[in-house]
Amino acid sequence: MVVVGLLVGGVGCGSGPSVEAFCAQYEKIDELTAVQIDTSDPDALEGYFTDTEAAFGDLVVAAPDDIKPDTQTLDQAFGDIMAALRAIDFDPAAIDPSIFEIATADEANNRVDSYYSANCAAIE
Q: Which residues contact 38 (CB under 8 A, 6 or more apart)?
């Protein structure tokens, strides 16, 4: 087993865009991406990545306007990763590590992390 960590760290509040909803979803993604999965099992990979894809979509919904473009960039980048994984039926042996290297996602991820650090500590 390997710990798979992706892009950021949680959403799915259903309360619409707000700092509070963003913070809660960011934390859900953080928890989700810290989970250990069996990276040799295509079904486990598919479930993990499908759940994570939904969580990034929820982050977009939760994000306030000032950070929403960066959450959309992350969501699109994760969608691109999912398309590549679906194309190989989540076969661990066929995964090209370069699918995880998306420069615009790195930049957006840094801004999302900074936004979380600046805005969410006071909420907890």
A: 1, 44
